[in-house]
Amino acid sequence: MAAPRGSTSTRVGLIQCVALIAGVALVVFAQPGRAESSPPSPLAQMCRTCHAEAQAEFAFGASLDSLDANTIFDRLRVYRSRSDDGSVMPRFARGMSDQTMQQLAAELGRSAP
Amino acid sequence: MNITLSRRQLLAAALLLPASTASARKRGPRIIVVGAGFGGASCARQLRLYLPNADILLIDRQARFLTGPFSNGVIAGLDEVAMITRHTRDVATAHRVRVLIDEVVTIDPVKREVRTAQHGVHRADRIVVAPGVSMRWDRIEGLHPGNSDAMPHGWLGGTQVTGLRDRFAALADGARIVIAAPPNPYRCPPGPYERASLMAAALQRRGHRNSRILIADAKDDFTKRALFQLEWDRRYPGVIEWIPRALNGEVVRVDTQRHHLWLRDATMPIQADLASVIPAQTAAQLAIDADLTDETQWCPVHPQRFESTRHAGIHVIGDAAIAAPMPKSGFAANSQAKLCAAAIAADLLGKPMPKAMLLNTCYSLLDTDAAISVSGYYAVVADRLSVLSEGISALGGDATQRRSEAEQARAWYRTITRDSFG
């Protein structure tokens, strides 16, 4: 028995709408990189307080914008090896592990997002 | 079940569903930050960074305030008051958050509601409380809020800062200045000693060779003590005298009309031409009333996220929080704000908690062109905040090093106030 015309139309419409909902949902929720991009860590943000980003006139520490991650990592290791307390950075770096330094350098380095 | 929707209705539903979902995402969580100092303002900024869609409301009773850092330079007449003046509404523009200038009357930590004097009740998913400190008026006989202006502490950024400045400026040579330093813990641990240093520097500039500064202390040690005392002897010989608690240095009674101060066990008072009495401190009364404090009258927190141990969903940062071994400083509050905001965002978004690592540096000026500092790097170890590394200016530092640190201190002030207040 043939189905009433209106019912068939509704089923087709329902399928179309489900597809539309799925499509729109994909657009809304699956923008490339949205889920993967991670915000800066609190520690990196603390570094940025003095090593201000794109605010050269306010920067207290040396600008990090021109340094790549490897250079920042190397400098942190040099600070850690210093025995004097004369400036702030050796005091901080002395307690940092290689892993923490690497993560910081990756976040703060020139290629960081 | 019979579906009888028309194509138009289905199409409308299809378009509406993502729209309403997106709207809910756009609306985001509602977060209230109470207090727009270094902790609160920084936290509002970081919350905006981590939660772009959140409704963030920053509430403070003051439209304009003076920062604690560098206020001693103003009191000594070495810096202008404009340098330490900030405007709360600037935070709204700089950090894209809503700002309400109103007095918070109560915080209900269970309902997560904040009531303000002029604008009623505000509900939130999370509340960050950064209210600062209150003075204890029960420790020094004869001293109370009504007569404190006569022996101004100048510790809360109000009119006492300029009042103390004006009275210091009016002193004649030969004056005796008494600074009463409070017991631990309190806001800005090196503050009383920096104040003495800068007053001595100002007296030297004025040619007041016969004036003396007495620090009457309620404790037996203080931060950077060896450095301060070495530099006092070097720069201001015989001008600054420190009396520790062990030698009955604690001020226990005052007569503000006669400018008399009694040290513990003293039979005779000290006559002061100018007294700055800094009382013992607690977390701000607002935090006490909100049941956020323990028997110490400070706010216990989980250091991983600076969430109150007494009420879930309520976070306490800055001077009011128990965060030892971190000192109660603007830098510490700014660091805690960053960790707290990241932790709130992680919790709301169902992401892993951030690593709890914190930084602090306290600079202290000895003169306009000389400073010393202490720094610490902290992390949570076994649910306790611990020092991973720390350091202090070299005892044998020369004038060049002291000058360099003074330049760093001023640069730090510019960057941290920019970071916190825009």
TrEMBL record, chain A:
InterPro entries, sorted: Cyt_c-like_dom_sf (IPR036909)
GO molecular function terms attached to this record: electron transfer activity; heme binding
Gene3D superfamilies: Cytochrome c-like domain
Protein's UniProt name: Cytochrome c553
TrEMBL record, chain B:
Coiled-coil intervals, chain numbering: none
Domain (Flavocytochrome c sulphide dehydrogenase flavin-binding): residue spans on this chain: 354-421
UniProt key word Signal: yes
Keywords associated with the record: FAD, Flavoprotein, Signal
Domain FAD/NAD(P)-binding: 30-143
One GO MF term: flavin adenine dinucleotide binding
Span of domain Sulfide dehydrogenase [flavocytochrome c] flavoprotein chain central: 164-279
Signal peptide coordinates: 1-24
Protein name: Sulfide dehydrogenase [flavocytochrome c] flavoprotein chain
Organism: Hydrocarboniphaga daqingensis
Lineage, uppermost ranks: Bacteria, Pseudomonadati, Pseudomonadota, Gammaproteobacteria, Nevskiales
